[in-house]
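Handoff note, outgoing to incoming analyst
You'll be picking up this chain. Sequence as last confirmed:
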Amino acid sequence: KKSTETFNRRNPEDALDVYKEGYRKIQAAELLGGGHVTDWNLELFVAQQRLSLEGGITFGCPQLDAKLNPNAPAGALLPGDTTVIMAPAGIGKTTTLITVATHNILRGKAVLFITHEGREDDIKFKILCCILQVTQKEFLDFYTDDPIFRKRSDYFSNVIRGNLKYIAFNHAMASITDVERLVRREQDLRILRSAD
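Most recent structure output, in case you need it:
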């Protein structure tokens, strides 16, 4: 919580230091009661671990996935993990996340993409260009002149439509807690829709 508050006050370097200190304290902590685990079903635990490793999503860079989690064949971002990408403006956070989204959309994964700035059509267009591996100018030229490219573009546009939920969360002074609430709401709605 302290790290989040520090980050929201626009101090990302201090937020990282607070996070590292909290992580160090957690690593050094001892379990109450001598650290004994009771009522542990090892068979169930192993099955859950396998599912978790197989259910990961990729960063879109096999070397990064392997470095961050060498035991996860599907990708380094595992269900239940929280990953924060922090950097100054203009470094490429959106581009990085477009790469992550693109690789997972192509794997048939549902992607929730939330931005603090930008327009929905621009993000979808960037994802489409990333999938097709063309610049935006090349896309516009090819789409007009090349019927095969147009057919591929239409196909991948439908793939994006089926796997991407985009939310422009352009609220001044929004906190990580606000975004977390939004993510939880979208998760709940997804669960309700899948139950139908």
